[in-house]
Design a protein that fits this description.
single chain; 162 residues; mainly alpha; 73% helix
């Protein structure tokens, strides 16, 4: 299953929403996996989650918890490209926050590249979810998919993701 968004372009309304669900869902799961791995690398467990986080560790753990809930809701709901894209955006933002912690632990060039890629993936996911795109713009979805793939590669190179 790809994360580009191009395969959903020419389909009818219901089929297109389902195709976009697969695209956004794959990106959301990938970003969540990156977030979990970066948190693990940084020594942040889900037990550090706080209702009102007091520091970056608490924020990352709480964001991870919320992203997992969002993925559960994604699996249980009908396809909605705008909501699905927001789920992917939120997971990418969680991964960017986790990447900041992991990069702070390991200040090497691979960690810096992984952090930059995570931030880019978060920005492109936000663009795909926001404005008039609302998860339906094939070019923005493709950009977000490519940025997510790059974030996965650099997270692996940094040693955060197996």
């Amino acid at each position: 299953m790809g994360v580009s968004g191009r395969e959903a372009v020419g389909a009818g309304p219901d089929t297109r929403a389902e195709g976009l669900r697969r695209v956004h869902g794959a990106r959301a799961h990938s970003a969540h996996d990156r977030a979990v791995a970066a948190c693990r690398y940084a020594g942040v467990g889900q037990d550090a989650a706080e209702i009102v986080p007091k520091d970056a560790v608490g924020r990352a753990a709480n964001a991870l918890r919320l992203a997992a809930r969002s993925l559960d809701a994604l699996a249980a709901s009908a396809p909605d490209p705008a909501a699905d894209a927001r789920c992917a955006r939120n997971a990418a933002a969680t991964a960017a926050l986790a990447a900041q912690l992991a990069a702070a632990r390991d200040g090497g060039p691979a960690a810096a590249a992984a952090l930059r890629a995570a931030l880019t993936a978060s920005r492109t996911a936000a663009a795909a979810a926001g404005g008039t795109a609302r998860g339906r713009d094939a070019a923005l979805n493709a950009d977000a998919g490519e940025a997510e793939r790059r974030a996965v590669v650099t997270a692996r190179e940094a040693g955060w993701l197996a």
